[in-house]
Amino acid sequence: MDTPPNTGFSAAPLRFLANGGAVGDLLQSSLLDGSPLGLPSDWPDSLKALMGTILPVQAQIVLFWGPEFVALYNDAYAPSIGEKHPRALGRPAIENWRELWDDLEPLLRGVRETGQTFAAKDRAFYIERHGYGETVYFDVSYSAVHQNDGSVGGVLCIVTETTERVHFERRQALLLELGQAFPSIHDPEQIEADLIRRIGGELGAARVHIAEADEVGEFGLRREYRQGEVTARSGLISVGDDTCSALRQGATVQAAANADPVLANSYAGALQPDGTASLVVHVPLMRHDTLAGVFTVEFEGLRVCSPHDIHIIEEAAKLGWQWINHMRSEAALHASSAQLAGMFEQAGAGIALCDHRGVFQQVNDRYCEIMGLQRQAIAGRSILELQKDLPANSQPMFYETFLTAEAPFELTQHHVLADGSVVWVQTHVTPLLDAQQHLSGLLFVCVDITARVGAEHQLIELNESLEQRVATMVAEREAAISLLHESRKIEMVGQLGGGIAHDFNNLLTPIMTSLELLRRQPVSNDRSHRLIDAALQAADRARILVGRLLTFARRQTLKPQVVALDSLVNDMRDLIQRSLGPTIEVIVEIPPGLPNILIDPHQLELGVLNLAVNARDAIAERGYLKISACSEVVADGPGLGPAPGQGCYVRLTVTDNGSGMSEDILQRCVEPFYSTKGVGKGTGLGLSMVQGLALQSGGGFDIQSAPGLGTRVDIWLPISSADVQTPAGADVDADPAPGTDHPFHVLVVDDEELVRYTVALQLRDLGYRVTEAASPSAAEQMVSAGLRPDVLVTDQLMAEKSGTQLALSLREVLPALPVLIVTGYTSESSKQIAGFEMLAKPFSRADIATKVAQAISDRRVPALIREQAGHAS
């Protein structure tokens, strides 16, 4: 019998590769034929033991062994090198990491030669792993692996790819920077240039431009970003019919250059074999629901846009387009105002404006010339007084007629000037009436018709009506623009901050939940406890900061309750005094018997404490903080801006005798992130949060201050006729299913895997049975298949449908199903979530335990009543 040739491989798998997954199987194949390491069976025991440990680990680990840095890694690491796997397995690193070898080789050699560990966060590497070059980011730790003789056998690299997070943070910062920069740029052309330059540079695009539609629907451009520079370029661009049709519907289109639109995940198939085709992303720019332009970003080479890249392009395009149109409108307004002012002064007719008493408010030079008087002799004087200055043989100006006229009229008169000459004047007089049809002023337009003596007097008052309207219109526009700026600023912070808050709260939820679970686990030393507590405190500070931003933008999910203001403030008095210190006296003057108020008590406590801390920082040495309140009826409040509307309120007043604020600081003190304190001493959200809380609660806000006179803040809080309710506390660690043989069953639905996992873990730790669903449709299928949960815990904002829609769907099958809606941020009205209990992200263990226990309790009480009724019958 012939003996089979010895290939180095046994029929049975090598023991240390038994649990090695796909990479372990490859190591047992002929893949390592010709590898500098030889066959796995011939490896040194130390290498076998190390690989036996590395292969099953879920972390991304690569081992570079020997002086040639032969690469060995596990299944978790393989996706991070893309198309380099599996050819890189068992081969010297220089063969497959050639494009970054100048960067990687010194790191590996440094660890191998010195034995010292190299670690870095978000370390950048340039790599070609998917057919094109890209810069990626990793958290890395490179450690020397010592052999039995003390020499270094290899370098063990534990890595975690952070590319997506780094790109997300950097591009979100870009959106914030653009949102902050554009309001200060008044040239729409500069806004366009900055937008395409920043987006092109951030995304590494080949070309970026904005093409606007003309009156015939053709798209023309004026400038383009190309190769790192913005250059002027005029001409038309071609947009295909299919692409244009999709853009008119408001849809973003991705397409291969010179090809039909394709989806991002099929784009690679549309590329030419040499990879020279381009990916083009078109974002529609709408004006009044009509396609007015296209924002185009073009990438060269093998490139697929991630959903986050598309999101950044869309948001930046919308933001830039909004500000381009806004600045164009503002420029048109300024031009119109300047034109009207020029018309007034340069008009060939004399124009004068009087108030309802007939006193001149404004005149132009031509009017003075026609009347033969100096401007200073007219301004501020009445028509009757002006008549006295004219020669006696001039015609009377019919003072009483002017002030009693109800309709415009014309008259022709002659005046004798100081030099004895006669001028014939045709005057058009327009009575200006207010909303009550009372006379508010007179507009005179005078025309010198001396050359046509005996025919008709000059037209005088025609343009004066225009002047009055112009003055009124300009004043109204300026007031409207001021309110518009404030409204858009708040809306912008709401949109940007709200979107960031949703994602940020989704990140904070698993962080806080995981930390709380860790804190409940036994640890080996106090240092671990302190680190966990410090991390929890930092996460809670982040939660508070996001809450303050949402409160300013009036998007915070408030929990209004009926509150007795005197009890709330008196309960805080010791806390306030400790916060202020012994040198500042706290005075509380809140009379008994004030009506109850409807407010979120926790937010109000935070607001009062913020005002107290501001007062402390403004008082140099000794001083006082006074907190007072009174009931107040606002009869004629406009309800615009921070002023309260008509209604009954409790006015809370916080006064200090600190240094006060100058007028320019007072005008900006409620702007978000504006602070006069040093770095690290304030977020700049305190006053803006208090104002946002007052306005979102249906009240009002006012602040008065002057240098050396201290500061006074008034907050109008809506009253409530209901009584204060004392909520019953919930036992966080209590048995979630008392009196039953099995724990209650909770269905957790969230399309964010990490959030869903940690919420489920927290509930299991509380003693509940938990079933997880990754989408609303999955949850509906489970219930249709017979799942009968005791309570539903669902996220609100999900891709398929909202949490409230899912709850209504499941209640068609389970009408009594308790529901807890979890949300990081929502712009939906409260009516859309009415009837469901809500829990804001991020939340603590106590929060979710209380909410779930309450939901189950609310369901069990009716069941117990029915059960007792059945026994009684």
TrEMBL record:
Q: Which Gene3D superfamilies match?
A: 1.10.287.130, 3.30.450.40, 3.40.50.2300, Histidine kinase-like ATPase, C-terminal domain, PAS domain
- Provide the E.C. number(s) assigned to this enzyme: 2.7.13.3
Query: Record's Pfam families?
Result: HATPase_c (PF02518), HisKA (PF00512), PAS_4 (PF08448), Response_reg (PF00072)
Post-translational modification 4-aspartylphosphate, affected residues: D795
GO molecular function list: phosphorelay sensor kinase activity
SUPFAM superfamilies, A to Z: ATPase domain of HSP90 chaperone/DNA topoisomerase II/histidine kinase (SSF55874), CheY-like (SSF52172), GAF domain-like (SSF55781), Homodimeric domain of signal transducing histidine kinase (SSF47384), PYP-like sensor domain (PAS domain) (SSF55785)
Indicate what this protein is called per its UniProt record.
Answer: histidine kinase
